[in-house]
Amino acid sequence: xxxxxxxxxxxxxxxxxxxxxxxxxxxxxxxxxxxxxxxxxxxxxxxxxxxxxxxxxxxxxxxxxxxxxxxxxxxxxxxxxxxxxxxxxxxxxxxxxxxxxxxxxxxxxxxxxxxxxxxxxxxxxxxxxxxxxxxxxxxxxxxxxxxxxxxxxxxxxxxxxxxxxxxxxxxxxxxxxxxxxxxxxxxxxxxxxxxxxxxxxxxxxxxxxxxxxxxxxxxxxxxxxxxxxxxxxxxxxxxxxxxxxxxxxxxxxxxxxxxxxxxxxxxxxxxxx
Amino acid sequence: xxxxxxxxxxxxxxxxxxxxxxxxxxxxxxxxxxxxxxxxxxxxxxxxxxxxxxxxxxxxxxxxxxxxxxxxxxxxxxxxxxxxxxxxxxxxxxxxxxxxxxxxxxxxxxxxxxxxxxxxxxxxxxxxxxxxxxxxxxxxxxxxxxxxxxxx
Lengths: 273, 152
Hints:
The complex is a heterodimer. Chain A is an alpha+beta fold. Helices cover 37% and strands 25% of the residues of chain A.
């Protein structure tokens, strides 16, 4: 296995352009480490972004939060400006696995892995975040829904790198709920990220299907009625009816559908409180 | 590939195999307190401190620590307050999880010197003890906090 560890982004993009699908991009490596330890993958070459310091930044520019792809979960969780301006995001990143994993796992990694049982994608989707993909032809910006296509599948092209995530100014209210069915540090069974502000209502259900589930038509119809318990319950039921849950060790599809109804209702209650 | 780093305070170099995980490289270098157990970053028995943060050595490639600093429990002085507290509180039963616990507690106390039992339990959520010695481990954390404060 070849180990490429470029010192800057320019070199990393060059290597990515030359090797394309023949290199696996290695960020923190917590997810790839599991897959390699289990013998599920044996990449012929890794392209490590570990030395690319310019991808580690976290900054606020013109009210927008910019997370470098190599910013760790722990860095996001602890960053004073994230905690102040985007507390729901700090909380969602802070609920991932253990501190040991959060110290290493990155913002870009968790999105590019597109693992369905991760916390950040649903949270970032509810906040309207966009991923910046850079390749030989320049940059493009995609929403989280455009980025994550299905199980472990993204729209990132073989010559592109996910370099940054941009989160617009946070809505007035935002909440993140994580339901675990086994132990406290387990990956989630069902998560709900919900946000309500000038941009309207967004409710995203994570971990229960192959990609985060959001139904903007349902949210648009219900956004004005969140103060009414009946409307909240109706939206929760509508979400539970519309999602296409999977079954795995953390819960059957039928179980997840029921949990979805409860967790969406509780998230909406928190938004309305 | 050649990996140059600081191991337990001293400059070290090792020859890491392709795709070799840090836990295996450290064991090959004689650090047998670092123990691969679950292999998926859940149990904490292979925890080491890289720079200032505990990480799972089973999920980190040896190549990733090039130019960085790695601390195992074997690098702590005998009179380290956390080690002393674990001994005095009889917090180890079989001892398998103890090195990872000690390093995690060191990092926790650095952030939160007056940690209470509840926050300590939360912080150790990612460290499993299959003997179930948790109550004594939490006693040890309280004692370690007192000894550390006294030391400072």
